[in-house]
Structure formats: structure tokens, C-alpha cells
Design a protein that fits this description.
Layout lengths: L7 E7 L6 H17 L4 E3 L11 H7 L7 H13 L2 E12 L2 E9 L5 E6 L5 E3 L5 E3 L11 E5 L2 E5 L8 H9 L4 E3 L6 H19 L2 E4 L3 E3 L5 E3 L3 E3 L5 E4 L5 E7 L2 H9 L2 H4 L23
Parallel strand pairs: 1-2, 2-3, 9-10, 10-11
Antiparallel strand pairs: 1-16, 3-4, 4-5, 6-7, 8-9, 11-14, 12-13, 14-15
């Protein structure tokens, strides 16, 4: 790992992606340039940066293979132009004729792809208010966690619904991750109930920074997302937060705070693997204290 104690400035891009990848790309590029102008060394965009589309037919008509994806090519060129680490929270990428992947790309300042990550946990839920989502109908789940070394530490990659599975983040932290990334498109309903609690919990329990760029507002496809992009420090404090509108959220990150938090509460060292004991069969005789034998 090539981590240094140097501080860096992180820029989180909050978007309201629509159905047209070209339009979304233009918006993302504008906001990334704004973040760079504000001093960002690293920029994170939200989940589904290139498209938000519920219709299977329209989704597959708009997306393509990774090597042909114009958004990815443009982000790589932009990273070179700006000499910037650009972390594309995720793009919908065609993996086969009938399945896409929800894939995150961490791009280095020379335009190289430093890491890829395919979302592991599919958002298949019925929220009880008329909202129902079946991500697995269109997307193939990933099966590998991913970390990447940047100049300021080891970054652990995840996407949105992964947030609800703490074992993933513990595995990333145990693999050396000091900064956890959670680009997201949380629904308004689940975001209002759980977003802040879950993001802060992942930071606290792993003694890690969390960078969570989000989609926000009423989208062209009718979906409403929560927004509130967050930067949380290893002690669980919110350093920066967005609202619901598109924009740039900036925060200074001090990697030394990770070691300080983990020294105060060394839960990564205290974690133990254990087995769950199955219930024993119902006893034939129960002796209650005070009863006669």
C-alpha cells in the first residue's frame, strides 16, 4: 500500500441522472470540472451516473459493452486532462445480450483504470408504498469485493444497496481499506429512514472514512432518490452533506484520523469468528430453582 499521511480534498458529485447517457455525461463532466476548480484531488460520482432507466427495453437500447462505452472513454480522457483521480460510482454496462452489470470504475490521473467493481447485492425489494424494484431482472450480480491503493490510502469499493451488508465492509477493512466508497441512488423512502444511520455505522464500526455520492430528486423515469451525499469521518462525524439538488460536495480528508480512531476503539483487532449453537432439543425434565427435585 502506498498511503501517505498527506491530507487530500474529496469532491462528491450529486446528480439527477436521466434516460440519455450523453446528457448525463455532460452534466457529470461539468460538475467534475467544478470540483477540480474547487481543489479536489479525488472525485466520486453516484451510482448509475450514465443512466436511470426502469424499462428493460430502453435500458438495453441505450447501453453498450465496456470497450465501446462513450461515457467511460470520456471520463478516462477527463482524468488525463485534469490529472485527477475520477471514481465513476457506477455505469450500466452491457455484459451479455440479456444482462448488464452495475460497475464502478476508479480511474487514475493518467486515464488508466485502477479498479473495477461489480455491485454484489441486487436491489430486489417491495417497499410497501407501491414502489417495487427487481435489479436482478436486468443486472448480473458481482461476486468479488475490490480495494485499490491511492496516494492517501487503500479505498474499498461498494455500491448503494451493498450498504446494508456490514460483512462486506468489515472484509474491506480487514483487507486494509481506510476509506470506504458508497456511490448510491437510495430511494427517498429508504433514504429518509436509513441513509444517515447506515453510512455513519459503516464508518464507526470500521474506523474508516466513508465517501457516499448520491443521486437526488425526481428523475425523468419517475423514480425519486434521496440525495444527501455524505462524507463521514472514522468517528462517525458528518464532515459534509448535500441536499437534494445536483451539485458538488467538498471535504478535506486527513488519513491520520483513521489510525487515531482505530487506536481508541480497536474493534478490528478484537473481532472474533464464532459459531452459532443450534437450539438443543426440548428437555424431558426442567428443574426450576426452588422446586423440589
Amino acid at each position: 500500500m502506498t498511503a501517505t499521511s498527506a491530507k487530500f480534498r474529496a469532491g462528491l458529485i450529486q446528480m439527477r441522472s436521466g434516460r440519455a447517457p450523453a446528457v448525463n455525461l455532460d452534466e457529470a463532466v461539468k460538475l467534475i470540472r467544478q470540483a477540480r476548480d474547487n481543489g479536489a484531488d479525488y472525485v466520486l460520482t453516484p451510482e448509475m451516473t450514465n443512466i436511470m432507466e426502469l424499462s428493460r427495453e430502453k435500458l438495453f437500447a441505450a447501453i453498450t459493452d465496456e470497450d465501446k462505452d462513450e461515457s467511460l472513454s470520456a471520463f478516462r480522457d477527463l482524468a488525463r486532462q485534469l490529472s485527477l483521480h475520477i471514481h465513476v460510482g457506477s455505469l450500466a454496462i452491457k455484459a451479455s445480450p440479456d444482462r448488464a452489470v452495475n460497475r464502478s470504475f476508479l480511474i487514475g490521473p493518467k486515464g488508466d483504470i485502477a479498479a473495477r467493481y461489480d455491485k454484489i447485492h441486487m436491489f430486489d425489494v417491495d417497499l410497501g408504498n407501491g414502489e417495487s424494484y427487481r435489479e436482478s431482472n436486468n443486472f448480473r450480480a458481482g461476486d468479488l469485493a475490490a480495494v485499490a491503493d491511492l496516494p492517501w490510502g487503500r479505498f474499498g469499493l461498494s455500491i448503494c444497496y451493498d450498504l446494508r451488508f456490514p460483512a462486506l465492509y468489515r472484509a474491506l477493512a480487514e483487507a486494509g481499506a481506510t476509506i470506504l466508497t458508497i456511490p448510491s441512488a437510495f430511494t427517498r423512502v429508504t433514504g429518509e429512514a436509513h441513509w444517515h444511520v447506515l453510512v455513519r455505522a459503516r464508518a464507526i464500526e470500521n474506523g474508516s472514512f466513508v465517501l457516499a455520492a448520491a443521486q437526488g430528486g425526481q428523475h425523468e423515469n419517475g423514480r425519486e432518490t434521496y440525495g444527501h451525499s455524505l462524507v463521514v469521518d472514522p468517528w462517525g462525524r458528518i464532515l459534509a452533506e448535500g441536499g437534494t439538488e445536483p451539485g458538488v460536495i467538498m471535504a478535506e480528508i486527513d488519513p491520520a484520523e483513521v489510525a487515531a480512531a482505530r487506536a481508541k476503539v480497536p474493534s478490528l483487532q478484537h473481532g472474533r469468528r464464532f459459531e452459532v449453537i443450534e437450539p438443543i432439543a426440548e428437555p424431558t425434565h426442567l428443574h426450576v430453582v426452588g422446586d423440589k427435585p
